[in-house]
Amino acid sequence: MNELHELRERLRAFARARDWEQFHSPKNLSMALIVEAAELVEHFQWLTEPQSRCLDPKTFAAVEQEIADVFIYLVRLSDLLGMDLLDAAARKIALNEQKYPADEVRGKADKR
User: Fold this and answer.
1) Residue 80 contacts by C-beta under 8 Å, 6 or more apart in sequence?
2) In the prediction, which pLDDT does 111 show?
3) Which DSSP category does 21 fall into?
4) Global pTM?
5) What is the mean pLDDT of residues 37-41?
6) Long-range CB contacts (< 8 A, 24+ apart) of 6-15?
7) Residue 100 DSSP label
8) Distance, CA of 32 to CA of 73 (rounded, Å)
9) Cα separation, 78 vs 96, whole angstroms
10) What's the pLDDT at 46?
């Protein structure tokens, strides 16, 4: 059993023990995910690029918690939809490798 599977099971049990499954629809989970992503962005909103790479310990801890929240909602949402998150990520990386060949986009930030 892999660690992601164990996390999915733990999150299922967590929601079940609190009778929260009734609230965990794809719609609600995706909205909660966006709220958590916004909370993550708030920590970086007025930082310079260098500051964003070197967070003080308090900010680092807060960012870590927000990233964990985003990850938890992603895992829960993908589980509810019957999606294998690691397989989906691998497929998306493969698509991005085709869409953005390294020799054509190296050092460029613009989208095609």
Assistant:
1) 24, 25, 26, 29
2) 73
3) G
4) 0.90
5) 98
6) 7/75, 8/75, 8/76, 8/79, 11/72, 11/75, 11/76, 11/79, 12/79, 15/76
7) S
8) 7
9) 20
10) 97
